[in-house]
Amino acid sequence: MAEDPVPSFEDALTHVERIVEDLERGEPSLSTALAKYEEGVKLLRRCYDLLDQAERSVALLTGVDENGHPTTAPFDATATQAREPEAATTAPNAGDTGTRSRVRRSAAVVREPSEIPDPPF
Questions:
Q1: What is the distance, to the nearest Å, from the Cα of residue 97 to the centroid of all Cα atoms in its chain?
Q2: Cβ distance 51 to 100 under 8 Å?
Q3: Considering only CA atoms, which of 48, 35, 44 is closest in space to residue 15?
Q4: Is residue 3 part of a domain?
Q5: pLDDT by residue, tens only, the chain of 121 residues
Q6: Residue 116 gets which letter from DSSP?
Q7: Predicted model pTM
Q8: Is 68 helix (H, G, I), strand (E, B) or coil?
């Protein structure tokens, strides 16, 4: 049996958002909800992997050398992480900050089993 094709970032994120909406509305059976939960966790991992790859591939233009060739340096994501939550609240749909914030909102609903609290009954 052939393996499913790997979804693009946008497709994976859209699918996770649909799963979150379905789970928030309630599923007809526990087994269906668990299957969707597992699929959501896999898709979120895919989204985070793709975002990490994109951050590693970004190079910053730092200037021009004596021959007129551009010089670059690797992007340092740690420089923006401290400001990211603030930026996400002021501009949720702006560029990568909005994308990260959409992934985080989805991840907040689709949690690892160890993070799910015990029921009150």
A1: 11
A2: yes
A3: 44
A4: no
A5: 455 678 899 999 999 999 999 888 887 788 898 999 999 999 999 999 999 888 888 877 788 888 888 888 887 767 666 555 544 444 444 444 566 666 666 555 555 555 555 555 4
A6: S
A7: 0.53
A8: coil
For tokens 């994109």, name the residue.
54
Q: Is the C-alpha dihedral spanning 20, 26, 30, 31 positive or negative?
A: negative
Centre a 10 Å sphere on the Cβ of residue 119 and count the other Cβ atoms it contains.
5
Residue with tokens 């790997």: 6
- The domain in which residue 17 lies consists of 9-91+98-111
Q: Is residue 55 part of a domain?
A: yes
Q: Is 105 a domain residue? A: yes
77 assigned to some structural domain: yes
Count of other CB atoms within 10 angstroms of residue 99: 19
**Three-class secondary structure of residue 77 per DSSP:** coil
Number of structural domains found in the chain: 1
Q: Which of 99, 116, 110, 100 is nearest to 22 (CA)?
A: 110
User: Rounded CA gap, 46 and 41, in Å?
Assistant: 9
